[in-house]
């Protein structure tokens, strides 16, 4: 029977963006709604704040991810262009460089030379991109994918506290929304950690801690300004 291993490297790009978007959607929108609700605002005011936060946050996440990942992609392309030029003008030096990399990884110098030559004969740029630059197709920057994943998951995450603000009794918003949001954050942290091959418990605790801290801080601010306001 063939030995098969299941890795998650091909998920890293979209998984990072999706988890970040959903986590930020729940946390930032819930914190905003809790802060507004704690200031003794009406349901309508609370909902307006929550929906505005959802729309603004989703668009901000999309723009931020697109710009950030586009910069990463530009850097990757510039590195590949430089490597392509060096392969065309200094092939022997590039072969020596690749050989040195394999020697540092533990291969015998003669074997390292053979491996370098064979890989360069097949696809020199791919060999140097992978082993010298650390660039692979699975981990390549994809700006549009990251932007869409972040925006969509932010909107889904933000929808949790917005819907709660719509259906929960006004007097209980400052309790219901944090409780529901923390449950969702903990579940998200566990699922994301498991999908990434890490400990679900650690992921849940990490996300839950920061979620509670953020909502407690905004609730305190809302209560303070709601109390001292006119």
Description:
This protein is mainly α. It has one domain. It is 82% helix and 0% strand. α2 packs across α3. It is elongated and about 75 Å long. The relative contact order is 0.19.
Key attributes of the depicted protein:
230 residues, single chain, mainly alpha, 82% helix, elongated, disordered N terminus
Secondary-structure map:
Blueprint: H1 12-38, H2 43-89, H3 91-104, H4 109-131, H5 143-167, H6 173-195, H7 200-228
Helix pairs in contact: 1-2, 1-5, 1-6, 1-7, 2-3, 2-4, 2-5, 3-4, 5-6, 6-7
Structural class: mainly alpha
What's the end-to-end separation, in Å?
Answer: 75 Å
What share of residues is helical?
over 70%
Taking pLDDT < 50 over at least 5 consecutive residues as the criterion, the unreliable ranges are 1-10
Quick check: average pLDDT? Answer: 83
Query: Strand tally, please?
Result: 0
- Biggest sheet: strands, sense, closure? none
The dominant shape is elongated
Give the radius of gyration. Answer: 25 Å
Query: SSE order in H/E notation?
Result: HHHHHHH
Q: Total helix count?
A: 7
- The share of residues in extended strands comes to under 5%
**Overall domain count:** 1
């Amino acid at each position: 029977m063939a030995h098969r291993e299941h890795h998650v490297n091909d998920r890293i790009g979209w998984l990072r963006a999706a988890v970040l978007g959903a986590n930020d959607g729940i946390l930032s929108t819930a914190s905003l709604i809790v802060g507004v609700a704690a200031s003794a605002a009406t349901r309508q005011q609370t909902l307006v704040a929550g929906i505005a936060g959802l729309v603004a946050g989703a668009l901000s996440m999309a723009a931020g991810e697109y710009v950030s990942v586009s910069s990463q992609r530009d850097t990757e392309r510039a590195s590949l262009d430089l490597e392509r030029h060096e392969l065309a003008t200094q092939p022997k030096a590039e072969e020596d460089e690749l050989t040195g990399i394999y020697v540092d990884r533990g291969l015998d110098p003669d074997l390292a030379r053979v491996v370098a030559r064979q890989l360069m004969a097949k696809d020199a740029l791919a060999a140097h991109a992978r082993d010298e630059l650390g660039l692979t197709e699975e981990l390549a920057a994809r700006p549009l994918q990251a932007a869409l994943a972040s925006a969509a998951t932010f909107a889904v995450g933000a929808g949790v506290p917005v819907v709660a603000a719509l259906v929960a009794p006004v007097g209980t918003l400052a309790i219901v929304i944090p409780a529901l949001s923390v449950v969702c954050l903990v579940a998200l942290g566990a699922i994301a950690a498991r999908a990434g091959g890490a400990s679900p418990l650690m992921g849940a605790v990490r996300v839950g801690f920061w979620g509670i801290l953020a909502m407690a801080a905004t609730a305190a601010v809302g209560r303070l300004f709601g109390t001292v306001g006119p």
